């Protein structure tokens, strides 16, 4: 098949009534792709055999109550051999469709604002990003994890081929790498919103930004290359199969093709915003823009549009109007521009722009290497003088408009700056976020901008007739329009096969009771006067210790006073509190202490106090004893209820201690995760199980002690046992490959045996 090594128009598809915001290559039929639009629909396009080398609409999907912002394909499975289509919208929902039904198969609800990016992974995993600043991991119609850490909208997400690794790019200018639900690394370098991400390989990826740059990163954190060519926001990226060359689109009205690290071709479009792109299996490029038209470009001469259609596309481009305020052309001084004779000189590179003066008119031309000529790309409306007279200064920047917005009657008014080249919906969103206003006002503010900027539109010139390239009804920014625990003996290696009673929960009791009391007295003797305990208090604590140290104790019943004194003493200074914590971790196993300290009123205070002792920079002895205390809280009904209610906070803080190099801390951490897994075994709380999987999986990366490893393996096995969705999530997180190294461990044998059982469960 002949190739010109230069992309030209294959066809234009005027299939949507408003902006085309997302494109994705379909698995089926061959050569097909999916588009989504502000017109609230998604459409599947298949290549046809007609002379125009175009595409035919095969399927139209509707289910969103507002604009559709993004789309991705969920890979085929046994249930859905043709794959599924997932779309995200401004209604905060994700709709999932089959290829033969116009209505959603199911809808995923959970985000609190626009879902603006989607990516799919193995085993049906779906990753979404939203203006609510979070990303979410979905599996089997359930939200399994919420990834929190960005401080602004999450504009881009991708799942890397290496199982369990996910990336998110945000308006906070950062990119975050997530593993098993936890942020492992933050990439900084972009100077404005990160708008797009694209996978290169297991170890590399691209990002693009409003700062007009594209960056190439290693997952280890290094930025290895920065690419410049765009002159305005860059919205999307797509990588060719060779993993090196790629394409990008943006607010400068262009599609750019990059080869060997250089921009080898610039294709300008007759639309201001080129929102999205995808690469088809045959190497053709599909792009979607703000004029509602999908355009497909090809380097195969066999598939290029006819000479007449190519000329029509060029004519339409030449009629476009370009506003200097978009920044695409730099500062323009009409009096300094050369005349038409300047076009007799050839350009230096593909995509180079040149402005010429024709009377009082300014025209923009672009150099085409493949054609060896200058192509007109539009008329420039307004020079620098007009720009200055029409601009309004606000916070040191020039804007076309600065509106005064009154949200609350009698309250302070707020300023909303706006340029006609901007998307009113994005401007409205940023305004609401900056001023901490409810997203409920989004439509109201955006419509206010549209209504008050009528007649000031940057975009293609409108012919009188319905030209097939213009899409007359398109959207243009600015135009109006008490439960069982884990299994049997936790040391048998088959723990997660048989569920039994909470008595099986691991509540360690080994302690040197007398030495704890003696150490307490010793430290009290040297304690600062304001922290010194009286003899009476010491006697009460010793009496309490004897009462809780064994079931056959002949000591008198505990008193509330003793328990209160224990609570008070636990607030000793960090450097001397450890003997009190040793008493407390034993005491919480006693039903009366468990009820008193873990009850509804006091429980949260206990939890917060123990978590404060578990700070990563804290003392290892306190960290270990606080973890053991939490483990022992599971021995009573009130303690279990408390820790289940505080699960997310407790496990998050505990997980940070996996990096502390201390065997005893690792065993205590593993025991805590195991106790949670036991309590969750018979519950349908998938998000809680996902956190258990995440914490256990991450801990296994650093923990070396075999007893701790064993307990973490038991926790994994308990979590996935009898729960197909939990098993699917474990597979998608790469648990199989992570733990396989333990399958051959023979010292102790229980580690290898337990690992083999889990691998069998996950087959």
Automatic annotation (TrEMBL):
GO terms for biological process: proteasome-mediated ubiquitin-dependent protein catabolic process; ubiquitin recycling. Gene3D superfamilies: Leucine-rich Repeat Variant (1.25.10.10), PFU (PLAA family ubiquitin binding), C-terminal domain (3.10.20.870), YVTN repeat-like/Quinoprotein amine dehydrogenase (2.130.10.10). The keyword Cytoplasm applies. The keyword Cell membrane does not apply. WD repeats lie at residues 147-179, 227-258. InterPro entries: ARM-like, PFU, PFU_sf, PUL_dom, WD40/YVTN_repeat-like_dom_sf, WD40_repeat_dom_sf, WD40_rpt. Residues 366-463 form the PFU domain. One of its GO terms (cellular component) is cytoplasm. Residues 498-761 form the PUL domain. SUPFAM superfamilies: WD40 repeat-like (SSF50978). Its main location: cytoplasm. It is found in: Cytoplasm; Nucleus. One of its GO terms (molecular function) is ubiquitin binding. Pfam families: PFU, PUL, WD40. Keywords: Cytoplasm, Nucleus, Repeat, WD repeat. Belongs to the WD repeat PLAP family. PANTHER family: PHOSPHOLIPASE A-2-ACTIVATING PROTEIN. This is Phospholipase A2-activating protein. It comes from Amphiprion percula.
